[in-house]
Amino acid sequence: MLTENQLVNQLELFLRNQLQFQTYSELQIGSNDHFQISEFLEGGQKQIRIDLAGICQLDSSIHFFEAETQIHINHPSIYSQFCDYCYLLCPDEQFELLNNDTLEEQLLWAREIGIGIISISNEGKIRNRVPSIQQNLNSEVRKEILNSMNQRYKIPFSTTPLWNRPRQLIS
After folding, report:
1. What is the pLDDT of residue 152?
2. pLDDT digits (tens, 9 = 90+) for 28-64
3. In this model, does residue 148 exceed pLDDT 70?
4. How much is the pLDDT for 154?
5. Domain boundary assignment for the chain
6. In what order do the strands lie in the sheet with 47-56?
7. Among 15, 89, 91, 133, fewest CB within 10 Å belongs to which?
8. Which CATH number among 2.40.50, 2.30.29, 3.30.10, 3.40.1350 corresponds to the domain 4-164?
9. pLDDT tens for residues 77-96?
10. Measured between alpha carbons, how far apart are the two ends of the chain, in Å?
11. How far apart (Å, rounded) are the C-alpha atoms in residues 87 and 101?
């Protein structure tokens, strides 16, 4: 079964090479003088970390992908308020391992809240199991997310080889 890291790496290559996305792995979004992320989250969280984020070059839509080794919609449901499209990324095998009731419950919940589900097989086949529905993203939130994506890293991930990417936020 693929690990979270393997899932992210495979999808990132596909998004960049096939769909012309600008991608950012392990994107951290936190509060600043103009934006308090804790206003949007329960429990006073000061930042969130997205496994893979991308900007579609065609329409500038923001996409978040949360990798999990099991089908759990919890984290993507939190992150959906910070992007146009939000997805759970999981191994293909999870669709055979879960009992029908649990699988149907997660799929129904994903459809109800607009979270997409993408699975990847060990052979690298990417399947869109549940389509994501566009979220109503607040313009101020969009501005801050785009700032986080475009200004906190010295080099955009889309132009840097996988093995040579900066992983730390630049202060």
Report:
1. 53
2. 887 776 677 777 777 777 788 899 999 999 999 999 9
3. yes
4. 44
5. 4-164
6. 21-30, 47-56, 62-67, 85-91, 116-120, 126-130
7. 133
8. 3.40.1350
9. 888 888 999 999 999 998 88
10. 36
11. 21
**Cα angle 36-82-65, degrees, rounded to a multiple of 5:** 135
State the residue for tokens 């996988």.
162
Q: How many Cα atoms are found within 13 Å in the side-chain-facing hemisphere of 170?
A: 12
For 62, which DSSP code?
E
CA angle 111, 82, 87 (to 5 degrees): 35
Residue 70 pLDDT greater than 80, yes or no: yes
Q: Dig out the tokens for 116 from the structure.
A: 């997409």
